[in-house]
């Protein structure tokens, strides 16, 4: 198996049951699904989170002040009419709370009207796994007029999608949440194999939770973007092989396949103009600030294919000011190159995120939500993550 040495792929595959793993193997094809059409490449999906309540644990309160959610029903139970229940029903006893994207992906359906086979108002997101597989997440019974995303939009894990409701076939207010694994890149979500969504998310949770320290929102973002394998730690110095993996996942390239070894990744990156042939030697030695700055300069030219980073521009600039003595390190690469010591993993994630064009977007005043629902307290955690992949910025969620 070619990707045996590819840690991220190993982690993603290793987390799946054997049958699913075999299916994911067979799902590896070189092309994007036809339904994506000429849509620009959307980034990889690494770590996942729960869409309601706590992102990290069922039964815990959520970051926006939403109460704890419980599993009312999971997959497999018989439905009226003979079908089987194909998702998990997550409920806190009332509607109106935010539903967040479970992973980075592309919105393939955002249905604002109608019964829709019982789903009511619902959203479907396609996610590209690092092993080449395609997974869909489905969010159903959403509150009327609460949808904040549109078909074709790129979304980040944790980004608000809509609010919990009871549209369609629902006897109470809850989120019907599905995860489906496509057998091939062209398989429509309705036909894709139903997985246990709770198990799937639990097995793909990020190691870094955004709330722990200054760098962790960026580490979590890097994990959700599949830039970073969960095995890496924030306080580790940055190994060159890890950095190359991060560059390979972040670079905007039409690519569905990765070399199995880090030297292959190096050669690929040199071929794509991301790495400098003369200045990159073999791993596992550590990286210097000068090398990191040099690689970022080249990556800047190639462009990034990552979801919107986790902080507001102001919070990002403040963090960079304290970590790098400059609010925008990638606008001061000469200064970055002279930084003392060696880069830590967390600092590399912040620097990579700084390349994102989202920091340059002038902030528009967000519109108030069009929904009636219980008033939610102001969001204290990182704001709504938007969607962005180098230049293809959609409107901010509102
Ligand atoms: Zn259900």
Description:
With 398 residues, the protein is an alpha+beta fold. Residues 1-32 and 370-398 have low confidence and may be disordered. The strands form two sheets. Strands 1, 2, 3, 5, 6, 7, 8, 10 and 11 form a nine-stranded mixed beta sheet that branches. Strands 4-9 form a two-stranded antiparallel ribbon. It has helices spanning 7-14, 18-26, 197-203, 216-224, 240-250, 262-271, 289-302, 313-324, 333-337, 345-354, and strands spanning 44-45, 70-73, 88-91, 98-100, 105-111, 122-129, 134-140, 154-155, 160-163, 175-181, 193-195. Helix content is 24%, strand content 13%. Helix 4 crosses helix 10. The chain has two domains: 2-203, Glucose Permease (Domain IIA), CATH 2.70.70.10; 216-360. The radius of gyration is 21 Å and the shape is elongated.
Total number of beta strands = 11
Q: Percent of residues in helical segments?
A: 10-25%
Mean pLDDT: 79
CATH level 1 name of the largest domain: Mainly Beta
Shape descriptor: elongated
Report the CATH topology name of the largest domain.
Glucose Permease (Domain IIA)
Heterogens: zinc ion
What is the C-alpha radius of gyration, as a whole number of Å? Answer: 21 Å
Low-pLDDT parts are 1-32, 370-398
Count of DSSP-assigned helices: 10
- Percent of residues in beta strands: 5-15%
CATH architecture of the largest domain: Distorted Sandwich
Note the main sheet: 9 strands, mixed
Oligomer: single chain
Number of structural domains? 2
Helix/strand-derived class? Answer: alpha+beta
């Amino acid at each position: 198996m070619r990707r045996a040495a590819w840690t991220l792929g190993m982690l993603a595959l290793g987390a799946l049951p054997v049958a699913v793993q075999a299916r994911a193997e067979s799902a590896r094809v070189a092309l994007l699904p036809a339904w994506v059409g000429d849509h620009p490449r959307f980034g990889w999906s690494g770590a996942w989170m729960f869409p309601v309540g706590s992102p990290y644990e069922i039964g815990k309160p959520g970051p926006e002040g939403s109460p704890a959610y419980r599993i009312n029903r999971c997959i497999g139970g018989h439905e009226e009419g003979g079908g089987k229940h194909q998702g998990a029903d997550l409920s806190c006893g009332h509607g109106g709370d935010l539903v967040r994207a479970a992973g980075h992906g592309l919105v393939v359906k955002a249905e604002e009207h109608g019964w829709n086979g019982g789903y009511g108002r619902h959203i479907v997101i396609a996610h590209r796994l690092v092993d080449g597989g395609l997974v869909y997440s489905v969010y159903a019974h959403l509150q009327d007029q609460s949808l904040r995303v549109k078909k074709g939009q790129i979304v980040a894990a944790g980004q608000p999608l809509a609010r919990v409701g009871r549209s369609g076939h629902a006897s109470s207010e809850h989120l019907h949440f599905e995860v489906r694994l496509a057998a091939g890149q062209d398989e429509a979500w309705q036909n894709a194999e139903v997985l246990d969504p709770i198990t799937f998310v639990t097995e793909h949770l990020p190691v870094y939770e955004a709330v722990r320290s200054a760098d962790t929102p960026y580490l979590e973002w890097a994990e959700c973007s599949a830039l970073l394998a969960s095995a890496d730690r924030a306080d580790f110095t940055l190994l060159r092989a890890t950095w190359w993996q991060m560059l390979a996942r972040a670079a905007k390239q039409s690519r569905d396949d990765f070399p199995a070894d880090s030297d292959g990744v190096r050669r690929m990156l040199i071929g794509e103009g991301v790495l400098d042939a003369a200045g990159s030697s073999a791993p596992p030695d550590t990286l210097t600030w000068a090398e990191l700055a040099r690689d970022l300069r080249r990556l800047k030219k190639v462009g990034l294919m990552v979801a919107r980073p986790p902080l507001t521009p102001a919070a990002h600039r403040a963090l960079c000011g304290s970590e790098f003595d400059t609010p925008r390190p990638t606008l001061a690469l000469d200064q970055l190159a002279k930084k003392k010591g060696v880069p830590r993993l967390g600092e590399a994630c912040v620097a990579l995120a700084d390349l994102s064009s989202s920091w340059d977007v002038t902030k528009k005043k967000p519109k108030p939500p069009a929904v009636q629902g219980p008033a939610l307290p102001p969001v204290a955690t990182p704001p709504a993550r938007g969607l962005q992949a180098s230049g293809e910025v959609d409107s901010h969620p509102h």
